[in-house]
What we know:
The complex is a heterodimer.
Chain A: H1 4-24, H2 29-72, H3 80-104, H4 109-133, H5 140-149, H6 152-158, H7 161-180, H8 188-191, H9 196-205, H10 210-230, H11 238-257, H12 268-283, H13 307-337, H14 343-357, H15 359-371, H16 377-401, H17 405-425, H18 430-458
Helix pairs in contact in A: 1-2, 2-4, 3-4, 4-6, 4-7, 5-7, 6-7, 7-10, 11-12, 11-13, 11-14, 11-15, 13-14, 14-16, 16-17, 17-18
Chain B: H1 3-34, E1 36-45, E2 48-49, E3 53-60, E4 65-68, E5 80-87, E6 93-99, E7 107-111, E8 114-121, E9 135-144, E10 152-154, H2 157-170, E11 185-192, E12 195-203, E13 206-207, H3 208-217
Antiparallel strand pairs in B: 1-3, 1-11, 2-3, 3-10, 4-9, 5-6, 5-7, 8-9, 11-12, 12-13
Helix pairs in contact in B: 2-3
Amino acid sequence: MASGSTGSRKRNLILGEAEQWVREGIIDESVRRRLEERYTAADDAATSSWRSIVFLSIGALLVGLGIIALLAANWDTLSRPTRAVIAFTPLTLCAGAWLAGTAKGWRSRTFLEPLGIFWTLAIGAGIALIAQTYQISGSADSFTLSWTLLMLPVLYGTRAMAPTAGYFIGLFVWVCIRAELGMNSQAYWLLAPLAIPALVLIRNEAPRGARFMAAIWCATLISTAALGFTLEKVLPGLWFIIYSGAFASMLVGGLLVEPKGDSIWQTPMRTLGAAGQAGLLYLLMFRGPWVSLGLRHSDRIDAPWQAVFDYAMAVAMPTLAVILAVMLRNKIWRAMRSPDTDKRGHLIFGATALFFGLAPVFLAGMYALSCSEQLTEKTAGLITAAYLVLSALATLGAGLTRRSLLLLNSGVLILLAVIIARFFMEDYSFTARGIAFVVCGVCFFVTNWFASRKLKRCV
Amino acid sequence: MNRKILVPLVVVGIVAQIATLAWMLIQRELTLRCGTACLLETAPVDPFDAFRGRYVSLAFNDLGSATVPEEQRKWQRGTSVWLSLQTNDSGVARIDSVSRTHPDGISIKTRISYSNDEYKAIEPTVTNRWGHAETRKTGNTILRFNDLPCNRYYLPERIASQAEQAYFEANRQRSGDGNVPRQNAHAKVRVWRGNVVIEDLLIGGIPIREFIGTETTR
């Protein structure tokens, strides 16, 4: 069964081509009508299947939440043994349903998606009711972690969106609570990879399906946010080398493994990597992040061993980015050797990827110079701005040579953002700033118009 | 990963889910059946947990902190410790000692929330240039325990707000007539092998549900 959006695109492509074939006399009208009936029926089946999944999932969610609310109302009149049986019942029913479905070979998403939601909620309801019955205090972090880890069998059993998202969201909530309590949460990096085999299974079932894409987006976004919470931040400024390395690894890794094409939805790693790297370099154009860096300004922490994670990531992330950049360079080099290839396009695209991919190395050098006070904050900001401008120009060039409106617009946007930011940092009147904004906006529109025309002519 | 590995893996996971819930239940049930009963003097605030219902948040007068005769660096925040309890003639328990290993007798396992060095004023008193008495470290450490494993008492939704009201009034000295004593609130708990389960909440020695019923009738 094709997923909704991919199925519709294929259908429109086939039917569009079929009309052309009729005009050229390759097929006759009756064949075209049979093709139309066949693909419309398949598309309707996919659409109604998605409709069933969504409505059944909403139903399962509402029933599950209702059960939790009813249990939380604290049925004081029931004895402890009765409440214990009630605590186990939803979980046992879900496990039984999964076992029965597996035995009968039920693999449709219409069955597994609602089951995934209900089963996930049943675990939480069971833990909560036993905690309520036996007056178990416990902290929010242990409740969250228990619930999250017990979602793993649901994730592997159903490969549904709810337990997949729930697992990563649960881990992130646990990280946030631990950060609030001033406690370490670096175990996130041991627990998150436990879901990787399940993600591989989901990808094998539908490589470009919505489930896999949603799972990757969820995992990437949450891991990026969790990185900040799990760092001890003992050494001021080390975080931007770590984050730059992470974004560079995502970008270059995405270029190596993700499908080609401009769809942002289909390329989460390189979208997040590129946007994150550009955003980080933009922030580092300002003086603030470069103030008070290095060992002299480090904070005291209770358990020094926790800072080892920071130092390890500061080495590992840039190293990973460099290794991936070398692999990408080799891939581009191989592509350039084949005949009839756009060598200039590959070269410019490769340069763009390396600009963003090697940013952690550049920032590590700037950090070392700033710590040894060989670079003032203002100079560091200026050099970073220059690096970002070069990256933006390379992106613009890559957009023109590869005929990609996305790359072109991204390059122009970064350039304009740098110009506007530098403009704000200096002391100009409102009139001058207003004129500058208007000029930038007009440049943006004009560039886009010319580029769109040029790209259309090339197609 | 093919189905021959996946299905048994998920079955093991299902067993783990049921076993986790069962272990939570068995541990507390054994504590209630085999544990030693004692009273802990409380001071409450009443919040709400969306997943587990209405509860009274309990803080304990004599379990919130303790002083140990060692340096602060040996008692870091988050360290698991055992609080040995000693009951007085009224049956109210207080912290007798704190240790890093499981002691004999009644004890509760918890974690250190905060720790700081103890300072005391120098004898004879010496005043610094800002007018404050000079202090020095005693070599002891003050430990604070904010997350005791018995800091919540869940109540039925219909009586939770009445319980809150009863607590505030019971802990307030009655004005005008100094002869009416303040009614103390206690948590009656069962302690067994470091685990603690709250059996009931008492106001003036009366279980909270009975107390609310009596107050309503009056």
